[in-house]
């Protein structure tokens, strides 16, 4: 599954249907910037919109995933529902990965916060202790933010 190839295929089929990015975006209920991101291979369509996209472009899900039209004598056979389920699972795993990064950041922040208590006693040590405390708090806040973003993207 090559995102750039899929993106070029989406652009090709959109142009064959004489749609602008804005027109296709309006039909799908997304922004034209989203269409642009798909076509440049920066991201893939969300599993929830793939069927609508395929319907508008008059292609199958298999053709979309392959990034090319299926030849009449092709032996590739995909079940659209299985492909959509696979895409949904991949996107959920990507979101879980983001959440995991957030949890790791929070854990590291807590560890740094604990370490800051063991440093102190002189001006230099107090400086490092305060720096560690600030770094740990910042890391925990970023971790919370990343975790919330990851969980909010999961469906």
Brief account:
The protein is mostly helical. It contains 7 helices and no strands. Helix 2 packs across helix 3, helix 4 (47-57) packs antiparallel against helix 6 (80-118) and helix 6 runs antiparallel to helix 7.
Describe this structure in words.
The protein is mainly alpha-helical. The protein is 75% helix and 0% strand. The chain is built from seven helices and no strands. The chain has helices spanning 3-16, 21-28, 32-39, 47-57, 61-66, 80-118, 123-153. The two termini are 23 Å apart.
Helix content: over 70%
Radius of gyration: 23 Å
Anisotropy-based shape: elongated
Oligomer: single chain
Derived structural class: mainly alpha
Put simply, the count of helices is 7
Number of strands: 0
Could you tell me the mean pLDDT? 84
Low-confidence stretches: none
Helix-strand blueprint:
Blueprint: H1 3-16, H2 21-28, H3 32-39, H4 47-57, H5 61-66, H6 80-118, H7 123-153
Attribute tags:
mainly alpha, elongated, 155 residues
């Amino acid at each position: 599954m090559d995102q750039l190839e899929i993106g070029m295929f989406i652009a090709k089929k959109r142009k064959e249907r004489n749609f602008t990015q804005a027109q296709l975006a309006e039909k799908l209920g997304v922004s034209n910037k989203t269409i642009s991101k798909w076509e440049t291979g920066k991201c893939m369509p969300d599993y929830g919109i793939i069927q609508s996209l395929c319907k508008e472009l008059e292609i199958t899900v298999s053709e979309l995933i392959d990034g090319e039209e299926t030849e009449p004598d092709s032996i590739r056979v995909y079940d659209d529902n299985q492909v959509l389920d696979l895409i949904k699972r991949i996107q959920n795993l990507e979101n879980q990965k983001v959440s995991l990064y957030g949890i790791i950041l929070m854990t590291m922040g807590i560890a740094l916060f604990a370490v800051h208590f063991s440093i102190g006693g002189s001006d230099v040590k107090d400086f490092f202790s305060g720096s560690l405390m600030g770094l740990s708090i910042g890391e925990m806040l970023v971790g919370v933010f990343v975790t919330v973003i990851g969980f909010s993207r999961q469906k």
